[in-house]
Design a protein that fits this description.
single chain; 205 residues; alpha+beta; Cathepsin D, subunit A, domain 1; 4-stranded antiparallel beta sheet; 21 strands
Length: 205
């Protein structure tokens, strides 16, 4: 099954920068529930980071995303609630609605994300190549009653900035082909999790 997963990867160019050792990709646009956000026409150099715990966006981009996400969530009967004082997340919802439920991860059975939430898509070099972030990787369970959007305001900037953080990378299969400067990615693994993949013996445990 592992080989099948690699064959199903989508690929996008890796952007190298002389001033940074990080990996970057270009995001042409961002969609929430299949609706494109009004972010302008310039592509966004987007950093992939395993150090930053959650995805961050510059304040302007973040505010536009949150407005669209809250609107889409409302149409899905998700109820927005005040963010707990104990969290840095600013956009939170009740987890008590029967119309959506907490997802149990295959690896550990722990609570993570939601089965149903607005889909966030990072559109890369074309509409056919999109990094899809569903409820498993967008929503963070804060308590038995509250889940929050796991994307943070990265502060003011004179340009669009996105950093894809560790939480959004979980259960995404990534292949960095430095020879061809291409990144292969799976978006969320739906039938398994990365902890159950054994890429060395080429099977799922």
């Amino acid at each position: 099954m592992t080989s099948d997963l690699f064959q199903s990867l989508m690929y996008t160019p890796i952007i190298s920068k002389s001033t940074s050792d990080d990996y970057f990709i270009k995001v042409k646009s961002v969609k929430v529930s299949n609706k494109r956000l009004a972010l302008g026409t310039r592509s966004i150099d987007t950093k992939i980071s395993t150090v930053v715990p959650y995805t961050t966006m510059d304040t302007t981009t973040y505010d536009i995303l949150v407005q669209a996400f809250v609107g889409a969530a409302t149409h899905m009967n998700m109820t927005r609630v005040a963010a707990p004082h104990t969290t840095t997340f600013g956009t939170c919802f009740s987890s008590q609605k029967s119309s959506y439920s907490v997802h149990k991860t295959l690896a550990s059975g722990s609570d993570k994300g939601l089965n149903v939430a607005p889909i966030i898509e990072l559109v890369l070099q074309s509409e056919m190549v999109k990094w899809r972030i569903d409820g498993r990787n967008s929503m963070v369970r804060i308590s038995d009653e509250v889940v929050c959007l796991g994307i943070l305001d990265g502060g003011l900037s004179d340009k669009r900035e996105i950093t894809i953080g560790g939480y959004q990378l979980e259960d995404n299969l990534l292949e960095f082909d430095l020879g061809t400067s291409m990144l292969g990615f799976s978006s969320s693994l739906r039938q398994t999790s990365c902890s159950r993949l054994n890429v060395y013996t080429n099977h799922v445990e």
